[in-house]
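Attaching the record inline, Q. Sequence:
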Amino acid sequence: PDGEGHRIRVREYPVHTMEDAIVAAVRAEREGASAIVCAPIVSSVIEQIVRVPVATIIPRESVQAAIELAAKKAWI
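Structure, as predicted:
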């Protein structure tokens, strides 16, 4: 559950290249993702391609914090 009591289903799409990340983001959106969490290096490109909110993982922050941010953006 997120901080507000909603259950969040998280699915991972492992990638090794920027191209893989872009393909994975499009695939996630097609599979019904409410939001996408990704690295800063690809977030600006992914934001231009998908129609769901994109949250960026900054290495100093936790992955959970990025997922919670994506969930909040998806419910706004």
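The longest helix spans residues 18-30. The mean pLDDT is 87.

More tomorrow.
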